[in-house]
Amino acid sequence: IEKVEKEAAKLGKGPFQ
């Protein structure tokens, strides 16, 4: 799921955080 990781990176929080 690359999109989720990239979107999460923009928000400054990881998908597993």
Automatic annotation (TrEMBL):
This is Elongation factor 1a. The keyword Protein biosynthesis applies. It comes from the Eukaryota. One of its GO terms (molecular function) is translation elongation factor activity. It comes from Scolecobasidium tshawytschae. Keywords: Elongation factor, Protein biosynthesis.
